[in-house]
Specification:
By secondary structure, the protein is α+β, with helices and mostly antiparallel strands. It has four domains: about 35 residues; about 80 residues, Type Iii Antifreeze Protein Isoform Hplc 12, CATH 3.90.1210; about 120 residues, no CATH class; about 35 residues, no CATH class. The chain contains four helices and eleven strands, in the order αββαββββαββαβββ. A hairpin with a 2-residue loop joins strand 9 and strand 10. The longest helix has about 35 residues. The radius of gyration is 40 Å and the shape is elongated.
């Protein structure tokens, strides 16, 4: 009896071991399958093959297609079924960056250049410049400038220089609507095209007609308006003066000549003498 009991216990142990092994195997198999990620669906999206400056008309060789995850597809992008050929770029696109609808002009615009990149309700106005006015050739499309004018105030002889326009976008330099690449030499141009409102266009035309126009380049991040009084000959000569008074009076000699005093008056760079009677003290 004891002999059969031993065999019975051994058989039960084997059965339990087999059941446990099968359950363990099934559990491990399920976990392994859960860890295997299913391939995610992708879609080919249009990207720029080269840097695309604003005003550029896109051709076939400027576009390539790269796979993007369909679940994280950026809005406004173009797939292989759509086309961007013939569209005009209004926002620069770097190489390998996706091309978005927001970076392109409306489909009705087929001609590139300055007209395609002008903002709504704005105007493009050209200003004749020289090497000095153009900041020695370092002003390029996309830069922002302030416009200064020097003219005679109210017809007087003393001219005044004043900032009349601030933070104005440069659309084109000469015939170029794209910025020069880093490291290239400055370019001498005759005309710089600025983007202005209708009111700013009138001011710019008046300034160019009545006086001499100068451009001051701004930092890309500087958008603050600066209020100035303007600069005149008098304020220019009084710069870095030790006294805030516009005129300095100094008694050079005090001689009794027919009861009169002789006083030398210095105003800026002008020197004059004034005779004062003793009775006028």
């Amino acid at each position: 009896m004891n002999k059969y009991k031993s065999f019975l216990m051994l058989g039960l142990g084997i059965i339990v071991a087999l059941v446990t092994s099968v359950m363990t195997y099934n559990w491990l198999q399920k976990n392994a399958e859960a860890r295997v990620e299913k391939p995610r669906e992708t879609l080919n999206i249009a990207v720029a093959s080269i840097d695309l400056p604003w005003g550029k008309v896109i051709t076939k060789d400027m576009v390539s297609y790269k796979p993007f995850l369909k679940e994280s597809l950026p809005k406004g992008s173009f797939d292989e079924k759509s086309t961007v050929e013939g569209r005009v770029v209004i926002t620069p696109v770097k190489a390998d960056e996706p091309i978005f609808e927001s970076s392109l002009a409306p489909q009705s615009i087929e001609t590139g250049g300055v007209a395609a990149v002008i903002s709504p309700n704005k105007r493009a106005m050209a200003v004749k410049v020289d090497k000095v006015i153009g900041v020695s050739g370092f002003i390029y499309p996309g830069h922002r400038v302030d416009v200064l004018v020097t003219l005679s105030k109210d017809g007087k002889q003393d001219p005044v220089t004043k900032t009349v326009l601030e933070n104005i976008l440069v659309l084109a330099v000469g015939t170029k609507v794209e910025a020069e690449r880093k490291g290239q030499k400055p370019t001498e141009v005759d005309v710089i095209t600025l983007e202005v409102t209708a009111t700013e266009a009138e001011k710019l035309a008046h300034a160019a007609t009545e006086g001499k126009v100068q451009l001051a380049m701004r930092n890309f991040t500087d958008t603050q308006d600066v209020l100035t009084k303007g600069s005149t000959r008098s304020s220019l000569l009084s710069s870095y003066s030790s006294s805030s008074s516009p005129a300095k009076y100094r008694t050079v000699s005090k001689r009794k000549t027919d009861s009169n005093y002789s006083v030398e008056v210095i105003k800026g760079s002008e020197v004059s003498k004034v005779r004062i009677k003793r009775g006028d003290q």
